[in-house]
Amino acid sequence: MQEHFQYLYEMLTQVQGYIYPNEIDLQWGLLIVLYPYITGLVAGAFILASLERVFNVKVLKPTYELALLTALAFLLVATMPLISHLGHPERFYEIMITPHADSAMAIFGFVYLWYLMVVLLLEIWFDYRREIVIWSRQEKGLKKWLYKILTLGVTDLSPRTLRWDEKIGYFVTVVGIPSAFLLHGYVGFIFGSVKANPWWSTVLMPVIFLFSAMVSGIALVLVIYMGVSYLRRKKIDMKALDTIAKYLFYILILDFTLEGLDQVHRIYEAEESFEILSLLVHGPLFLTFFIFQIFLGTIIPLVSLGILQLYKPGEMARRTIYFISSILVLFGIFFMRWNVVIGGQLFSKSFYGFTDYKIRLAGSEGLLWSMVWIILPFLILAFLLWLLPPWKKAEAKSI
Amino acid sequence: MKHSRRKFLKKAAAGGSLLAVGIANPFNAIIFASEKPEDPSKPWWGYGIDIEKCIGCGRCANACKLENNVSKEPFYFRTWVEQYTIKNDGEVKVESPNGGIDGFTQTVPEEDIFKSFFVPKMCNHCYKSPCVQVCPVGATYESPDGVVLVDKDYCLGCRYCVQACPYGCRYIDPIEKVVDKCTFCYHRIIKGKTTACIEVCPTNARLMGDLNDKSGELYTFLKNHNCLVLKPHLNTGCKLYYNELNAEVS
Amino acid sequence: MPPQLKTLIPLFILFILAFLIARHFLVPDSFGKEGHYRFESVEDNKEMPMFYAGNEACAECHDKAAEMEYDMHADLTCETCHGPGMAHYENPDNKLIMPRDRSFCGLCHASNNTRKYKLAQVDLEEHNPGMKCVECHNPHLPWEIAE
């Protein structure tokens, strides 16, 4: 605690102008930046997977399961930054038992559970049920038991039942798309509905969050697909890669347009808060907003992906450009979340000044823990790929 | 069709006259808290601050910390005092060193000052509180007599209410890790005492009272002064009324 | 019915039932009695300890009016300067504070243009530096200046 006070005294010296005394202690730090970032990756990866299934985009088949498992791996971690930032993490269950109907945050638990249990787990289960049953018969030891549990006792592999897998799985995916929209649009609403904060309070916030989620999720699947192919020393399916990159390009245009519209609207209306927000983006947020989010994270990928739509160089060059663009997009969207969450707290609600935020290394809000929440999904994904390898699906044959 | 149209016109006319009454109402501050609870026999607490009287001694902020066991560190205040200085060139300077507890100095020379005054700040106990609205678990709520309270045994410490408060009146208690804020000294007012801040104010710049009591102290204060609330455009239903509030104050 | 649903539907029902049972035991008793909150919390808030006793409590033993003779400070409550008095009210052996520093008087009376025309102002640096205010001014009768 003394350490925290020391940090606050340091921040006190960084205050410019006037801020309310209670505002020096910035409430939502790095962990809350990660929360919309991770849920966004989930929603985006899921929507990419759904494209293949619902809209029957066959070229995306190689990434379908990979995208689903990526979404699951990140979704399992999505609540961790949230819970660990609470003052009393042991009380988190209250949000499930007494959700306050007026609160934008209250139904997060239910939205999350719906998405996890009704959408993602079910879709993966229906998609893999045939293989799980087969593997539960072929594998040995621990793995056999894991598969046996995962079958949930439904071991029927008759063509009729397999058709049901297909049908219900399709239905779940159809339900899943609005659910994914809900999950992330809703996260945007948590910020967009705070009328006290002019940097957050915009009706476009849920839509912007949604599209940036799609952009980041697609970029993530692209990177993971390339990474996994490299590790498995398999040839990358360039058709799938080109198609994903095309989607990334189109949705990036939409996302950029929406964010641009939001800013143009702000600038044109120039409400009471305009001066302070203008100082904010040109001052404390200049680097993360103009350089990281817009230039590196949006314009460079937009231009490079755009060029590839017109002119197609060799595979190696395309792969490199796709990879770098995706990494830049992921970097840019992280700073988009940063600019929303941290940026919204850097200026005083009195509109008379700014406070400062410095990332600390240790502590539950610190950099080290945040790294854990970023790395953990990849470990979970590695486990899921070991348990449910998409590339072995085709080989699985019933005995 | 014609019938419903006439009905609508009638309604609109009624609405119009209602609005006219509202604007013509001399107690304009009351408009902001117009949706009163139905039972006028129960008290409904509100608060008044006379900026004209405040001398910036910071005794209120000091007493509040002592009465309510608020951390002495200068980052946690249930109430604090701000010194506003509007210079002749139009620049607005605001300061609140340690919430005003250690007093104020005026560094702007007198000839440069157009106007200067102290503004005590505290929870507005809004009737349509954004903080109550956003609490995901019902750990902050408006009591039946109109005081916004915190349930410290139930608060998660999610800090959404701190973000939602437009007035910066909430903080996370550094020891208990739950949210904390002004309670109108609830433990005092229900025993017939006044709040600690009002108790120690040497100039009677602060007062509180029952908004249902038409002859009460607060109601009289609202009638006799042209009171305003902070950030009225946010429509939070503030029940903290300021006399002589300048537009520069936010 | 497909065999998958035969298994999944009971599982989901079981899950929801388990949730409802847990909820039944976890929700605090007084929750929702008046509104969406734990009603007992209002009582908790009422039971916080008091530190300031209030002017009426002082008047039970001390005749402030007689002592201060309606001088400038007569309108002040005792606890404005003497601090929280509940401990003293409950047991007079607990003494109150008697602030004697120049800085304490300066909280109100140090020159500040913001309050210049509202009350007596003194430039603490020029006005008898080094002396305590109370050496000349009786805080209870501030206009009676000692020789």
Question: Can you describe what's shown?
Answer:
The complex is a heterotrimer of chains A (399), B (250) and C (147). Helices cover 72% and strands 1% of the residues of chain A. Chain A contains 14 helices and 2 strands; from the N terminus they run αβααααααααααααβα. The relative contact order of chain A is 0.15. Chain A has helices at residues 2-14, 30-54, 61-85, 94-97, 108-138, 141-150, 159-192, 205-231, 238-269, 274-282, 286-310, 315-341, 343-346, 367-387; strands at 16-17, 353-354. In chain A, helix 3 (61-85) packs across helix 5, helix 3 packs antiparallel against helix 14 and helix 8 runs antiparallel to helix 9. Chain A has 399 residues and is mainly alpha-helical. Chain A has a two-stranded antiparallel ribbon with strand order 1-2. Chain A has one domain. Chain B has a single domain (45-243), classed as Alpha-Beta Plaits, CATH 3.30.70. Chain B contains 8 helices and 10 strands. Chain B is globular. Mean pLDDT of chain B is 87; it is low at 1-29. Chain C is elongated. The model of chain C has no long low-confidence stretch (mean pLDDT 92). By secondary structure, chain C is mostly helical. Chains in contact: A-B, A-C, B-C. At the A-B interface, helix 1 of A face strand 3, helix 4, helix 5 and strand 7 of B.
